[in-house]
Design a protein that fits this description.
190 residues, mainly alpha, three-stranded antiparallel beta sheet, 3 strands, binds manganese (II) ion
C-alpha cells in the first residue's frame, strides 16, 4: 500500500508563483488519485510489495500493465516534482553538477533555454526533465503523460510538470510563463 507523501513545504509556501489553491488540487486531488488508483490496481498482483521504481521498471513498455505504469509513474513523478520546488532552495546546482551542465549545454543560461524549450514544446500533457544516463551524461528530455526517465534507464535530476493541472489556475494557458517562473523562482537544486 502506498500513501500520499506530504508536501515538503507548506501549501502557501510557493505563493505567488504557485498558489495554495493549485496545490490543494494538484497534491490533494490529482496526486492522491494516482496513489489510490495504484493501490487498487496492484492489490493481489506481483507488483503489490514492490517499490515504486521497481513497479515502474517492470511495467514500462508492457501494454498489459499500462494502467499500473501510468499510476505508479505519476506517483513517482509528483513526489519528485515536489522535491524540485522551493522558493528558498538552491537556484543553481552544486559546483560539480553546474560544471557538468556548463560543459554539456555550453552555459547554465543555455541549459535553461533548452529546458524551457523542451517544457514548452511538449505537446499536451507531460513532463520535461534533466536526466543522467548510466555513463553520467546529461540529457534534457520531455515525456508524454506519465512517462519518465526511469522507464528509459535514465536517472532523473530535475523535472517540471507541464500537465495543465500544474499551472492552469495560476497561469491559464500561459505555459511558457509558468516554466520561466519555475526556472527563476521555484527551482530547487539539491
Ligand atoms: Mn501533475
Amino acid at each position: 500500500m502506498f500513501t500520499l507523501s506530504p508536501l515538503p513545504f507548506e501549501k502557501s509556501a510557493l505563493e505567488p508563483y504557485m498558489s495554495e489553491k493549485t496545490l490543494n488540487f494538484h497534491h490533494g486531488k490529482h496526486h492522491q488519485t494516482y496513489v489510490d488508483n495504484l493501490n487498487k490496481l496492484i492489490s493481489g498482483t506481483k507488483f503489490e510489495n514492490m517499490s515504486l521504481e521497481e513497479i515502474i521498471k517492470q511495467s514500462a513498455l508492457n501494454p498489459e500493465y499500462t494502467a499500473i505504469f501510468n499510476n505508479a509513474a505519476q506517483v513517482f513523478n509528483h513526489n519528485f516534482f515536489w522535491s524540485c520546488l522551493s522558493k528558498e532552495g538552491n537556484k543553481k546546482p552544486n559546483s560539480e553538477l553546474l560544471k557538468k551542465i556548463e560543459s554539456t549545454f555550453g552555459s547554465y543560461e543555455n541549459f535553461e533555454k533548452e529546458f524551457k524549450q523542451a517544457a514548452v514544446s511538449q505537446f499536451g500533457s507531460g513532463w520535461a526533465w534533466l536526466a543522467q544516463d548510466t555513463d553520467g551524461n546529461l540529457k534534457i528530455t520531455k515525456t508524454s503523460n506519465a512517462d519518465n526517465p526511469i522507464a528509459h534507464g535514465l536517472k532523473p535530476l530535475m523535472t517540471i510538470d507541464v500537465w495543465e493541472h500544474a499551472y492552469y489556475l495560476d497561469y491559464q494557458n500561459r505555459r511558457a510563463d509558468f516554466v520561466e517562473t519555475f526556472l527563476k523562482y521555484l527551482i530547487n537544486w539539491k
